[in-house]
């Protein structure tokens, strides 16, 4: 596409990608008001793409009846909100909000349990489309990534801004979801820009405007400044990024240690981090939040077994293994306990993950009640190094063969085709179910809740 006939100030239409030859309110070709213009529009090449309300968007795509409904993705009354669509957000629902508070804020919401396998597949499809734009894609999560499109103009015959706009249009047509784009000269400001005007946003922050743009912004906009650190800055009467801009690096380091270096550079729009193609997975885990607190073996052990099988399945799919088993518990008063044990050899077997986790769990069954249980594997490596023959435990090889047979049956007939005695008859994926209690449906409508 030829962009020499117009200037960056004229920009282009985000819907039909037509360059504009004048500063107008609507596209000269299609009449759309979604025009993008910026003095540095055709010079910038570093972007952050973030899918809009990803889980909820996928569910709405697959069920058109949900299109104009408030949708919350989350689990159970004791769980938290994973994602809320923008209709639910208008009503006060936020990610990580306890489910009971979310339903108080938006009682008419439709609650859908997460389907992580489906979301992961859609995420892979989106990632593949990103990699068609540039090899420099740095995934941040299942639904967002940094992209560096430097040097790709000859490949696409258009500047990065237009490539990104074309990508978003294709995403909506082929995948059926929307995303927001932030375009800038560094990762920090690209991420900041992508949060503007969601959903379907496309925001640009140029180098010339960075200092003035950042000056009035709250310090919490800086990556790494959470509530606790913001409170520390508040005690020093520092509330805006502009105040940090008046302080020198030595002063910030003296007051805030190594974090002071970050405050100094990011407050001035200086971020030297490069887009890296791969981020090493540090651990694979699974956890569940109960609808009520549990503290005895009969309730907790089946859950541990089911979660161990889920972690094992993810390790096998990723062709990974891990040397350290990590147990996570959260008490009724929201205090987290983490216990871990390093194995002699890496594993990806549910049997070994569960056995190790069970030893750790038994030490924590002491009358304390828990609202969350999780199990994971860290210190990951290639699967070829996993589970060598054990000359001491001669039965381990037989258990490994039995697990392989179970995997084949599940792959062919589904996860429920075969279960161990730990989880059989113990509820949905091992989750405790009280007598007379029915399983929750995958989708709960407002009129179906008690």
From TrEMBL:
Cofactor note text: Binds 2 magnesium ions per subunit.
Amino-acid positions noted as binding Mg(2+) in the UniProt annotation, renumbered to this chain: 50, 143
InterPro entries: DNA/RNA_pol_sf (IPR043502), DNA_pol_Y-fam_lit_finger_sf (IPR036775), DNA_pol_Y-fam_little_finger (IPR017961), DNA_polymerase-Y (IPR050116), DNApol_IV (IPR022880), Rev_trsase/Diguanyl_cyclase (IPR043128), UmuC (IPR001126)
Domain of life: Bacteria
EC number: 2.7.7.7
The name this protein goes by in its record: DNA polymerase IV
Keyword check for DNA repair: yes
Coiled coil regions in record: none
GO MF entry, a single one: DNA-directed DNA polymerase activity
Keywords, sorted A to Z: Cytoplasm, DNA damage, DNA repair, DNA replication, DNA-binding, DNA-directed DNA polymerase, Magnesium, Metal-binding, Mutator protein, Nucleotidyltransferase, Transferase
Catalytic activity: DNA(n) + a 2'-deoxyribonucleoside 5'-triphosphate = DNA(n+1) + diphosphate
Species in which this protein is naturally found: Aquamicrobium segne
NCBIfam families: PRK02406.1, PRK02794.1
Gene3D superfamilies: 3.30.70.270, 3.40.1170.60, 5' to 3' exonuclease, C-terminal subdomain, DNA polymerase, Y-family, little finger domain
Record's subunit section: Monomer.
């Amino acid at each position: 596409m030829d962009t020499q006939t117009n200037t960056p100030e004229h920009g282009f239409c985000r819907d039909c990608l037509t360059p504009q030859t004048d500063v107008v309110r609507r596209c000269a070709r299609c009449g759309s008001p979604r025009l993008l213009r910026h003095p540095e529009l055709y010079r910038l090449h570093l972007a952050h793409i973030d899918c809009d309300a990803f889980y909820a968007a996928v569910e709405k795509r697959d069920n058109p009846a949900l299109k104009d409904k408030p949708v919350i993705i989350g689990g159970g009354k004791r769980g938290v909100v994973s994602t809320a669509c923008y209709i639910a957000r208008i009503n006060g629902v936020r990610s990580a909000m306890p489910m009971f508070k979310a339903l108080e804020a938006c009682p008419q919401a439709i609650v859908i349990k997460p389907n992580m396998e489906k979301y992961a597949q859609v995420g892979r499809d989106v990632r593949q489309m990103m990699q068609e734009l540039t090899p420099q894609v740095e995934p941040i999560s299942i639904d967002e990534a940094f992209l560096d499109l430097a040097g790709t103009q000859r490949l696409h015959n258009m500047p990065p801004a237009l490539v990104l706009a074309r990508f978003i249009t294709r995403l909506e047509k082929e995948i059926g979801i929307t995303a927001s784009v932030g375009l800038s000269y560094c990762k920090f400001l690209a991420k900041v820009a992508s949060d503007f005007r969601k959903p379907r946003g496309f925001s640009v922050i140029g180098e010339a405007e960075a200092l003035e743009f950042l000056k009035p912004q709250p310090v919490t906009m800086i990556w790494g400044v959470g509530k606790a650190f913001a409170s520390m800055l508040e005690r020093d009467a520092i509330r805006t990024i502009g105040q940090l801009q008046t302080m020198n690096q030595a002063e910030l380091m003296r007051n805030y240690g190594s974090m002071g270096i970050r405050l100094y550079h990011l407050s001035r729009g200086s971020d030297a981090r490069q887009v890296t193609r791969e981020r090493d997975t540090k651990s694979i885990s699974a956890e569940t939040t109960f609808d009520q607190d549990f503290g005895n073996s009969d309730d907790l052990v089946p859950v541990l077994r089911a979660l161990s099988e889920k972690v094992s399945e993810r390790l096998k799919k990723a062709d990974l293994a891990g040397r350290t088993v990590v147990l996570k518990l959260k008490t009724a008063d929201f205090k987290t306990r983490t216990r871990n044990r390093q194995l002699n050899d890496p594993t990806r077997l549910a049997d070994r993950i569960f056995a190790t986790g069970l030893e750790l769990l038994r030490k924590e069954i002491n009358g304390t009640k828990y609202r969350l249980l999780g199990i994971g594997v860290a210190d990951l490596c290639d699967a070829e190094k996993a589970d060598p023959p054990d000359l001491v435990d001669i039965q381990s090889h037989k258990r490994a063969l039995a697990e392989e047979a179970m995997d084949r049956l599940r792959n062919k007939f589904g996860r429920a085709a075969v279960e161990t005695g730990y989880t059989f008859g113990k509820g949905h994926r091992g989750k405790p179910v009280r007598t007379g209690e029915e399983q929750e449906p995958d989708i709960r409508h407002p009129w179906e809740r008690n």
